[in-house]
Amino acid sequence: MPRILLLPLDERPCNFLYPALMVEKCTDVQLLLPPKELMGSKKRPAPFLLLAQWLGKNFSCCDYAVISIDMLVYGGIVPSRLHHQTTRECLDRLHLLADLRARYPQVKLFAFSLIMRAPCYNSADEEPDYYAEHGSSLFRVGVLRDKIQRNLATAEEKSELSGLEQSIPRSVLSDFCSRRSTNHAVNLQTIFLAEQGVLDFLTIPLDDCALLGWAAAERQQLAAAIRSHALGSRIYSYSGADEAGCILLARAVNHSRGITPSVHICYSSAGAPMVIPRFEDRPLGENLKWLVAAAGGRTCFSLQEADYILVVNAPTEGQSAMGDAKSPAPHSAFGERCLPDLAANLRALAAKKPVILADLAVTNGADREWMDLLQQQNLLKTLYAYAGWNTAANAAGCCIAQGMLCGKDSTQSALFTCHRILEDWLYMSLVRRDVAAYAQRKGLSFDDSWQEQLLAKYVTRQMCRLAKGLSLPAQVEISQISFPWHRPFEIELFIQLSAPSKAGM
């Protein structure tokens, strides 16, 4: 039985719970996770010294290690955007990996290190306090600087940049740029660690990015460093973040099994592979190839040679037109899709091969029109893996990993597929829209634990009501719901197989 150690990106379900459900419940792999209490909490960083102690104690017990550099160096994804450590202090923390490699050379060491995001909106929920006022301006500065660097900027844009840089307080711009510089130095150091053989494999995902901007400019420099050291076969960079741990877990399991799964991709429209999704920097079809490859698989043209079929429900237009689950895009973004044909093909494919469904038509939840159609045609139960949450890369990466990790025809795998359908469709696309309004009507707050419990009960009732009559891969019931970051954006969901009715006994 292979043993894999995982240091997750943070404590959220997508990074902590999903790997446990996929690996511990659905495979013969033993997963070593840090105690939940060592993971920090949103803006509160995980304690480095305690994590280092845990790694030192458990590294010798594993065959593979999957390490989030952001967790190791900064204490999590949100602390990576908030910390006040010097670049030297951050780089020093990476010495731990070289030490572990020297002490335990038999362990295969995979790591992922994010290129820090710069959201295009004003919000300090997951960013420094000043992002509430200057977020959109900081984003725009990154775009304009990148355009100038590429000799693409007009005179008007150069003038705009000058004005923006004057409007942003010097302390704000300095703090933001300093932290990005540190993040970039850490990413360069991970490339060096790969070159030195400390890391066997490395991914550098771009967190919530775009075609131009801070992340795009930094990626160019990192790509040049990767090419200069001829490390393109051992270091991949793609759009993503929260799926990265699951992707590398799949790679570790595939490596332990000595297999390279083949994936055939079926799209919802002819133009879908060329769409650049929101929060990403390249065409969908290319990013999916990177995700499959990072997971230790390959895409294939032939249906016959495929181990899995990846069915992709995608928009036909990109970033500007792509909607959000709570406020879908205009129909024009989906005009070319023939969903009945896609459903018919899904039925035919599922009769031959395991079907993985990446529901990417909207961000932050499932495509309601598409999921309604699958329910009407009794096709939900045919799905081998499903995801429709957050960004396109988050969803696609999660379901690709599930497909490769989970045993075929496994009850536990079917249970996790049900988990993803209930959370990504019923909650994120339907119930979540009403939670904030319900809280306001009742005068309830997520900041109060007792009131939050009342909101969780409301969500549970609504989801149970919507789940009645669904034809899922397994008969399940909701056992627990909570809000891990004390907000309605995500939930922590636990489900279980339904107890058999007395009538059926």
Task: Give a description of the structure.
By secondary structure, the chain is an alpha/beta fold. The protein folds into two domains: 196 residues, 3-Layer(aba) Sandwich (Rossmann fold); 179 residues, Rossmann fold. The protein has 16 helices and 13 strands. A six-stranded parallel beta sheet has the order 2-1-3-4-5-6, sandwiched between helices. The protein has a five-stranded parallel beta sheet with strand order 8-7-9-10-11, sandwiched between helices. The chain has a two-stranded antiparallel ribbon with strand order 12-13. Strand 10, helix 13 and strand 11 form a beta-alpha-beta unit. Helix 11 packs parallel to helix 14. The chain is globular, with a radius of gyration of 22 Å.
SSE string: EHEHEHHHEHHHEHEHEHEEHEHEHHHEE
The name of the CATH topology of the largest domain is Rossmann fold
CATH architecture of the largest domain: 3-Layer(aba) Sandwich
Q: State the end-to-end distance.
A: 36 Å
**Global Rg:** 22 Å
Strand residue content: 5-15%
* Bulk shape: globular
Q: What is the strand arrangement across the widest sheet?
A: 2-1-3-4-5-6
Specify the CATH class of the largest domain: Alpha Beta
Overall structural domain count:
2
Q: What profile does the largest beta sheet have?
A: 6 strands, parallel
